[in-house]
Design brief:
With about 220 residues, the chain is mostly helical. Helix 5 packs antiparallel against helix 10. It is elongated.
Length: about 220
């Protein structure tokens, strides 16, 4: 569920950040994100030159290249997740499953992510599936979504909400990126089936009518 690309309705070529932002960590992240969205590699020397600073300054702002890439992918996770939640109906587990379905399909279909994983598949899988910035961002987003359903009275969670969110993120990652771990393709349907098993005991409102009789929703 983490390490995702920008959604389709975000421009592929955003304006140059250096023309609208003072040099600093935010400008470095924005410039790196622009390269990512264009399917370009992120080179620290070239990025420092683009920002008009030395490499030492850039590293002081963003940490290592891996840390910068993690921040870029975490930002893309949040953007994609925001789009995936728009207009999603349902309530409780039904709504969460609809969001995850849309989110995971957006991830595996996105061209920027395909370009990155073709160049550096091992780096991507390490960044996306290990505890760190990307998993933390995805967990925070899902925690808020779960808590909103709890506050609406349509879910009951018998454990800390963040713990459940983190478990769902890790399940989603393991199936969504199965093709990087020796599988043949992403396994989104399988991920949704497992997540449904995690969420089924949490249902506290109207049961959703799912496809195949499993409670997994169809397209929103």
């Amino acid at each position: 569920m983490s390490g995702t690309p920008v959604p389709r309705d975000v421009p592929a070529r955003p304006p140059s950040v250096t023309s609208v932002q003072a040099p600093g960590p935010a400008a470095a992240l924005a410039a790196a994100s622009a390269h990512y969205l264009r399917g370009e590699p992120i080179d620290m020397s070239a990025l420092a030159a683009e920002l008009g600073v030395g490499r030492a300054t850039l590293y002081r702002w963003v940490g290592s290249r891996e840390q910068l890439l993690g921040a870029v992918l975490a930002e893309m996770t949040e953007r994609t997740y925001g789009v995936a939640t728009r207009g999603v109906g349902g309530a409780g587990p039904d709504r969460i499953l609809r969001i995850l379905d849309r989110f995971m399909h957006a991830v595996v279909d996105a061209e920027p992510l395909k370009a990155f994983t073709e160049r550096e598949p091992r780096l991507f899988i390490r960044l996306a599936t290990m505890p760190g910035t990307i998993e933390d961002r995805a967990t925070e987003l899902l925690t808020r979504e779960l808590q909103a359903e709890i506050d609406r009275g349509v879910m009951r969670v018998p454990l800390p909400t963040r713990t459940l969110a983190q478990a769902i993120v890790r399940v989603a990652d393991s199936f969504m990126y199965a093709h990087f771990l020796g599988g043949n393709r992403p396994e989104i349907d399988q991920a949704l089936e497992v997540v449904e098993l995690l969420l089924r005991p949490c249902a506290g409102g109207r049961p959703g009518a799912g496809r195949n009789g499993r409670g997994i929703p169809g397209p929103a």
